Amino acid sequence: MTDSDTPRPGGTGSLAGYTVSRIGYGAAQLARLHDDRSRALAVLRRAAELGVDHVDTAQFYGHGFVNDVIRKALRREDGMVVVSKVGVDPNPGGRIPLRLAQRPEQLRASVEDNLRSLDLDRIPVVNLRRSDGGPGGRASGDQLVDLDDQLATMTAMRDEGKIGAIGLSGVTLDVLRRALPAGIACVQNAYSLVARDDEDVLKLCLTEDIAWVPFFPLGGAFPGMPKVTDEPAVHDAARKAGVTTWQAGLAWLLHHAPNVLLIPGTASTDHLEANTAAGAITFDEATLAALDAVPSRSSQVQLA
Fold first, then answer.
1. Which residues are CB-contacts of 222 (< 8 A; sequence separation ≥ 6)?
2. Domain total in the chain
3. Is 61 among the catalytic positions?
């Protein structure tokens, strides 16, 4: 396990029955280090040294490269909770390099691919990535799959011991409500200080003791999406705290709700250290009120 003397970045939270650091690590950007495997390994080792104990990944990150690095970098004694996702496959050569893979047989195949590449008997948490809400394309044709059919497959794999818990990603309030009887451990939706479309989803997660794991936590991932770091209130908060604007944006999320778990991604150990340091940032009441008052703009950017 992680050294007991190493504080968990951001304090502790709950994920699928595990006690984890509130700041984890999103591994997608490790794909940028495809030609420098030693640097990718170093980023993951540094995350473990800093007390990070949950990592977010997927087989489609770097066409398996990221999972391969995770398998080689992490040790059993790190106590790292691995979270993967299904519902998307690589789309080499496409304008958008990913495509939906929503059919039950695709979900099962993706779990099996993740198990092999991570060399695990069971993946602690697997998120079902849908396209009901938030930025991104919408399912059509044979990718329009009923939620109940997908959850039946996910539940079967949980019963078989292939996955430990089920999460959801890219879902609306209605979809989350429908999924609750299956037992949902976490929800990953696009959410930030400037894009709080899913506040009602977050509140339901809080009520149901479900971890809220925002992606695009600083906004601005696609043209047309607002950026947290453009906000004057964020600049003021960062200046008062003596931190960067992006650190202030991450810290606000931790202050906003106790079930928030962050998974900021980076391919740099320096940036990783700065991200984890955001867990120690505090705001006075006036600063927090000013941040809370920042208007939310829609994150519903569609990718054709």
1. 135, 301, 303
2. 1
3. yes
